Amino acid sequence: MKTVKLTDSNVIQKIIESGNLQTDGFKMPAIPWIESDVVKYATIKKLAVTIDGKLNVLLLTKNIPNSAQKFSGVVGTIYQLRGGTTAGLIATSFQVSCTRAYFQVVAKCSGDNKVGTCEWNGEKYLAIGINHLPSSTLLFSGIYTDDCIFKNVLESEITWL
Fold first, then answer.
1. pTM for the whole thing?
2. Is residue 130 within 8 Å of residue 144, measured between CB atoms?
3. Which terminal CB of the chain, N or C, has fewer other CB atoms within 10 Å?
């Protein structure tokens, strides 16, 4: 695989404007003390469009309590964007660190978004609540493991644990 370093901001802007947002991240080389099948990084990854008028939750990765687990989860920034001549403005970002390994879970988020473990369809997940009710687009930049699903669901469909 050949690596190309983009340093020209005009080239980067044209890639973004073309709509060719990253759909999957780039696999990282092995990291000492990180036991995981695949760790990836995303420069900018489109995650979901939230459901209008409802509280949304972004499911990140499955969580199996009381069992030793490999490293899994996300560390990065989630961007929430919306706006135009017919849509109110939402332009916000928040830092998230939602990971699990060994017998531990770390679930932190900047701002007032709810973050932690929830249950959806009989499975337990690490998740983050999305506070804005109007529909918006969620983007992600950071490190995540291959088992992350980044699935947007209604908060009414989950139970926070």
1. 0.79
2. no
3. N
Q: How far apart are CA 8 and CA 11, in angstroms?
A: 5
CA 82 to chain centre: 17
Question: Comparing C-alpha atoms, which of 46, 20, 28, 48 is closest to residue 146?
Answer: 28
The residue whose two tokens read 């990065």 is: 76
Cα–Cα distances in angstroms (integers) from residue 102 to residues 35, 36, 70, 106, in the given order: 10, 11, 6, 11
| pLDDT tens per residue across all 161 residues of the chain | 455 555 655 555 555 555 555 566 778 888 888 877 788 888 888 898 898 888 999 999 999 888 898 899 999 999 999 988 888 898 999 999 999 999 999 999 998 889 999 999 999 999 999 877 788 999 999 999 988 999 999 999 999 98
Using an 8 Å Cβ cutoff, are 68 and 103 in contact?
yes
| Amino acid identity for residue 104 in this structure | Q
Count the helices and strands in the chain (H runs, E runs).
1, 11
| Spatial contact of 135 and 152, defined as CB atoms under 8 Å apart | no
